[in-house]
Amino acid sequence: xxxxxILDHPHEHxxxxxxxxxxxxxxxxxxxxxxxxxxxxRAIVEAAGGSGAGLAVVSDIDETILDNAAVMAxxxxxxxxxxxxxxxxxxxxxxQPHLIPGAADFFELADELGVTIxxxxxRFDENxxxxxxxLSRLGLPQVDADHVRLLGPPKAExxxxxxxxxxxILLLGDTLHDFDDAFAGSPLEEQHRLTEEHARRFGEDWIVxxxxxxxxxxxAELLPWDAPIRxx
Length: 232
Description:
It is globular, with a radius of gyration of 19 Å. The protein contains nine helices and seven strands, in the order H-H-H-E-E-H-H-E-H-E-H-E-H-E-H-E. Strands 5-4-1-6-7 form a five-stranded parallel β-sheet, with helices on both faces. Strands 2-3 form a two-stranded antiparallel sheet. By secondary structure, it is of the alpha/beta class. Helices cover 44% and strands 11% of the residues. Strand 4 (116-120), helix 7 and strand 5 (148-149) form a beta-alpha-beta unit. It has helices spanning 3-8, 10-22, 24-47, 69-75, 81-94, 103-112, 128-137, 155-163, 188-197; strands at residues 55-59, 66-67, 98-99, 116-120, 148-149, 167-173, 206-208. The model is unreliable at 1-7 (pLDDT under 50). Helix 2 packs antiparallel against helix 4 (69-75) and helix 3 packs parallel to helix 6 (103-112).
């Protein structure tokens, strides 16, 4: 999440977190994402002869598998970026996130089909043991040091490393750099252009989860309707 967005627009950010944490619509959208991911998973494995051997699903963790809205709400009361980093690290170690709806069934199915699962996240590597413990507590499969790959090399490099031994069939994430490194650090207009360029991949092998809590769009100016002036 961008610090300027939180500090300069606290009301708007509170509304975003409220939607993320309390709306029924967010749960429906998350279930919809996993329903689509499940359809694609079954179709790809069937096309591969019914075996998931050599195939991989690569998923982000936060706001893709884990719901962290509670710590996002808590972080709004902290005034500086460093405070928020410290709170996030504490959440990684001691927080009690819960699974996003649909996550448990999807990853259980991937495991049953023999597909390898990689959890690729920018959580802090210093808290890797804690992250593995959290994912294990929540019953997710294939949770170990090799399959949980945290902050260090950019996500693109971690995906390339996975591709040396597996064919990645699905990418799951809540920000566009979870799918292609070209999105990382790009201005908003470039992200829109790249989204059009990769349009065919959304819902095919890229499954994007909704997250109103952060993003470069938070600093974008609104574009209001330039209503025609009429006399009454």
